[in-house]
Amino acid sequence: MSNPDPLAAVFTDYTDDTSAEVRDGSTDRLWRKAKRRRIGRVAVASAAALALLVPAGWLLANTAGADGPEAAEEPPPVWTAPAPEGNGPNTRSDMLVKGYETLVGAVVDLPSFIPGNDEVDEICQVDDAVVVPGWVEVPDEEGAVFLREYTSLVPAMDAAPIPVALLGCDYGDGTAFQVVTLADEGDQWSTIAQYAHTEADGAVPLEITGSDEPFGEIKVGFAERYDPEANDLDYWFETITLDAAGDPVSTPAGDLDVEGFSDLNIDLAAMATGEAGVWDFTATIRNDGPRDATGYEVYMCALWSQTFTEVGLTDCINHECVDTGDGCPSNREPVAVIDLPVGESVTYEWTVVMDLDQWQAYIDSIDDAALAGPLFEITAEKPTEDRTIPRSFTRAAMFAEFLL
Amino acid sequence: MNAAAVAVTTTMNRDRAAPDRRAEFDAFYARNIGRITAQIRAYVGDHDEAEDLVAEAFTRALTRWKTVGSYDNPATWVRRVAWNLATSRLRRGAFARRFLRRQRITDVEGPQPDRVDLERALTALNERHRKAIILYYIADMTAAEIADQERVAESTVRTWLARGRAALAERLRIDEIKEQP
Question: Is A384 exposed, middle or buried (0-12, 13-18, 19+ CB in 10 A)?
């Protein structure tokens, strides 16, 4: 006769005690939370659809204008919502692509970040990985799969857009990235195809841009693995499609002029003044080399910029809109243009005032305040004249501070 | 009518048409909330954190209840999401620091360990050993089921359990640990 397992009794008591301590037996809170989340998703998805449809609508308007005799008198393109058209494949609801906030926190199955590298596979879990935010900086936790960028592509005429994600993972000796198309299967996401991944000691995908057309294309920005001692770094873009077998096919799209590309670091500190909603910010931008930085544009933005008063802030989500209290009258403007030799730094200070009523209204409208901010972000960018290369690829530094 | 209004109306209609779904989910919640919370609390060592994590997992199940509710065992899905969330949160900075502070308290007095002692002892275990122990003793999973979930060999889980038991016995001052499973 065997003795009873003494741990079994310990755990039985523990389970009974802790189960009894569960405070809220009602699901009311969950139902309210789920409802807010659904509505929030609908709102975000609708905004995403607007973003997707505006270029198409703009294109149609221009095409029609160019073909007609009144082309020169065409008013500026204005998007108007199409009327619902039933449940066919081209209805508006089919055009919705869920936003990045839906992917963050989701469970996703991915291919390897660096195929064939067992050490990276061991650290960077790709089966049932939980995606964490990482669009500003690499998360501290080693092995976490983080979302750096999110866009969409349209695979074919009349097809619904597909989410495209640039995901990363810090494996200790570096950070690996991969570009994948994803499918939301309800309880989790799965990978449709891998378009690019970090090559061991080689190219690293660092930027993605998607678009409605040409169909099935993703433009991916690559860089060599960063080496602070090197001075011959390459940065380039490739257009990637899938062939009939589903394998990625790359075509060079353009090189980035590396002159002036340097490793800028930004430290941003937010300090409460003691007065409710009033914060002092200090941002220090430092050039760690390898090149002198020239012509870098410094921007600052805020999530839900309406919550910040007294400082006209760009909205972090909609970079084309600057909220100055009168809607969105202009494109964003840099707060400074800087030249910064290697080893030198420059410091800026601002006082910002939050409209706490606006902020509360924002918090009430979302589900997870921890993912939403309020966020204050500063970037230093090197503009490029090559329109085929996204400006954001030249981003040298970004820092965001969550205030609350 | 704009698109957002159309979509919200659709959502509201769905809510009005689903009293059975609510009753079904509520019953599922009542059956499982205690045990899953106990598991996550044992894993993270903090009741409030555990409640938050489990609430989030149940909320995700609720927003996908049409799919999740059709599974053979929806509780498995919720438990898995809760574990993933807990693992993710454990690895984050602030919570990890609190967790590590608790880890320093490793020596437990007294021959009759209570739940505080048990939580402290659990926090000192290797993460995989801790997870295996919790799934075995609180989730009532067999070594084979844990191996299947964790995608490792059953012998590996048996090793985790043995090491976890030995470490717990030492910290809880339990002299006789049954050699099983």
Answer: middle
For chain B, give every domain's residue range.
Answer: 1-95, 105-181
| CATH architecture observed for domain B105-181 | Orthogonal Bundle (1.10)
Is pLDDT of A294 > 90?
no
Tens digit of pLDDT at every position of chain B (181 positions): 333 222 222 222 223 334 577 888 889 999 999 989 999 999 888 888 888 889 888 888 887 787 788 888 888 888 888 887 777 666 544 333 433 333 333 333 333 447 778 888 888 888 788 989 999 999 889 999 888 887 788 888 888 888 888 888 888 876 555 445 5
CA distance A353 to A150: 31
Domain A264-402, CATH:
2.60.40.10
Across the interface, do A27 and B1 touch by the CB < 8 Å criterion? no
In terms of C-beta distances under 8 Å and separation of at least 24 residues, what long-range contacts does A56-62 make, across chains too?
A: A56/A212
Residue A399 scores a pLDDT above 70 = no
Residue A66 forms contact with B (CB below 8 Å): no
Q: Which residues of A124-154 are buried (b: 16+ CB within 10 A; e: fewer)?
A: bbbebbbbbbbbbeebebebbbbbbbbbbbb
- CA–CA separation, A400 vs A268, rounded Å? 7
Query: Which residues of chain B are within 8 Å of residue A24 when distances are taken between CB atoms?
Result: 51
**Helix residue ranges, H only, A124-210:** none
- Decide if A7 and B137 are in contact by the 8 Å CB cutoff: yes
**Using 50, 70 and 90 to split pLDDT, how confident is the model at A397?**
very low
Instruction: Tell me whether strands A235-242 and A162-170 are parallel, antiparallel or unpaired.
Output: unpaired
Q: What's domain B1-95's architecture? A: Orthogonal Bundle (1.10)
| 3 state SS of A388 | coil
Residue A372 touches chain B, beta carbons under 8 Å? no
SS3 label, residue A379:
strand
Nearest Cα to Cα of residue A357 among A276, A301, A281 = A276
Contact B80 A38 (CB under 8 A): no
Q: For chain A, positions 102-161, list CB contacts with chain B under 8 A.
A: 105, 107, 127-128, 130, 132, 139-141, 143-144
Among A293, A283, A404, A398, which Cα is nearest to A339's?
A293
Residue A6: list chain B partners with CB under 8 A. 174, 176-178
For A139-157, the pLDDT digits (tens) are 888 899 999 888 888 887 6
CA-closest candidate to residue A299, choices A333, A263, A327, A328:
A333
DSSP string, A279-334: EEEEEEEEE-SSS-EEEEEEEEEETTGGGEESS--EESS-TT-B-SSSS--B----
Chain A residue nearest residue B113, CA to CA: A10
